[in-house]
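Entry 14. Two folds queued back to back today. First construct below, sequence then structure tokens.
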Amino acid sequence: MVDLAQISARLDAVERLPQIKADESIQERLKSKGFSRRDFMKWSGAMTAMLGLPAVFAPSVARAAELADRLPVIWLHMAECTGCSESLLRTETPSIDSLIFDYISLEYHETIMAAAGWQAEENLEGAIEKYKGRYILMVEGGIPSGENEFFLTVGPEGKSGAQHCKHAAEGAAAIFAIGTCSSFGGIQAAAPNPTGSVGLDKIINKPVINVPGCPPSEKNIVGNVLNFILFGTLPSLDVYNRPKWAYGLRIHDLCERRGHFDAGEFVESFGDAGAKDGYCLYKVGCKGPYTFNNCSRERFNSHTSWPVQAGHGCIGCSEPDFWDHMGPFEEPLADRLYESVFGGLGADATADKIGVGILAITGVAVAAHAAIASFKKDKGE
């Protein structure tokens, strides 16, 4: 069990690292955007709770955020839509999370940097060499592999994406696969997967923390950076290398429509009376009972909403091979339980070792519960 003294010692060590942005502090940046110190500490308290830490750790989380520029970030783009970056960068009213992400020293990020061609290549090599053993590597997008590596070539030397990832990973202090594409291959890996796209951990031989989602929330991205600053080590991970503090519960567990599920109140078709009354979306395809993520708790767009609140079921985007196995997205997965992505071996909210058939049995129970509850409601019981 890590105590406050250990975290304090870790943060002291981080603080001794050279400050990259000597002309600006996170407090000055937040103040210029209208956030007070009180707002920052409230955010720190919320982030502390999200990371599963006792409230007494909130000042340490705040200090970690203030030291965020001591660990530079190299962000590589592979085969992707840039949605993970866009979810952080394209915001009309920046949140504290996105401002902290902006404050982090992004030494290489193709979407936002002005350099191109040979100059961009030099910037990447310079950052890898200058901050070797110190930088955080974040990779967005699936990586074409094997004999199909050539489907993704990057830079003036025509190196493959896989080559870039392997090279950058060698000197990284921590490696994060941002989004479902870099975590599991994503849509690029959908059958028949012509480019041989795979997740980052399939092509490098160092530990990778997967942060899946299409896209993941800004809190899950920034939270992982803060966790590494605080502890200097990997968080507790599930069987798919996802941090349990973010992916330890099913969407279904904390969904605001869960009460309607238990009461047997379901949307039968989009736009019906049940849809207008906020009934459960299970019968129109919600994959919340099979999907591990904190969307139902953290939401998106500065915590304002998320797909289920907006009226469409979860599509299971943070699960491996979701594009192939979670569809059709507007039909219940219960119709095809034994052909699901998990095959009875999926991640579990409380244990890493799952017996064959456990999740399938859970699915049967979900379907049975839904049917029985609906039957009772129709009978007026």
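Second construct, same run, same settings:
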Amino acid sequence: MVRCTHPGRTTVSELRRTRLLVIGAGPAGYTAAIYAARAGLAPLVVAGLQPGGQLTITTEVENYPGFAQAIQGPWLMEQMQAQAEHVGATVVQDIITAVRLDRRPFRATGDSGTVYEAEAVVIATGAQARWLGIPGEKELSGFGVSACATCDGFFYRGKDVAVIGGGNSATEEALYLSNLARHVTLVHRRGELRSEKILQQRLFAKENVSVVWHSVVEAVLADSSGRMPVARALALRNVNTGERSELPVHGVFVAIGHDPATSLFKGQVAMDADGYILTEPGTTRTSVPGVFAAGDVQDRIYRQAVTAAGTGCMAALEAEKFLAHAPAEAPAAAAY
């Protein structure tokens, strides 16, 4: 137990010590836990606000190796958790609200009040796609609305789709989809794209790609005639004229960027201008010895479940090596 004294009150919090603390429970976090547990590190995983990460809102997964048929994202995450626990990891349903990484042992405080103390830490809190926040977007997620063409584009072969955005991500998504879909419409609120010129040249050279300029999406419209509602069209508004129109589509891909879930670690580990944790090339090592970053928190390019799992494996192996050579340090005094 840790006794914390504040002006006018005294609270008692549980203290849990572990050799390796994994913060986040998506493919990266669970894979790190599996490898660390098999190495005898008895890792403790704090699952966070959305255990399982973005795969928990993905209905069908066809590109994760080892499964001939499409699998459900939530089911895959349940299996990863079960595997991690089976080999010796402990998964805790808590949300880390504060961390201290300036000295070992590292400390993290949960929303429950529990204080976690660890000799090494794997940050695997993931990233989340930015959404438009319009009617129909959330309701039709997985039923015509997606934020990942690489993940879901396969389901729209020979169909009409729309991509929302104007940067590199949107242009790359449109290019990828142009090889699968019958027609791709890029919707952008401005009169020119912000993506690299070479990407624009490739996009404009595609015969099955068109651009709707100076337009914003006001809603994703549903077809509710079947067993489940699915996307049927976009409600558009021209920002210059105010004219409204509908764009019939089978799929909608929102590509306005991602935000890594790293605000908790700002000022404690090195990050780039967009908040992604910087790691040494070819490793998961951060600027703080003993702290490793895996998955979408440090991957701004691929953001796939399989690449996240790969870096989770790397982080565990590197943490094992670090702990084998790093001298043990006395627990730090509680600071409140």
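Quick look at the second one. The chain has a mean pLDDT of 91. The CA atoms of residues 25 and 309 lie 11 Å apart.
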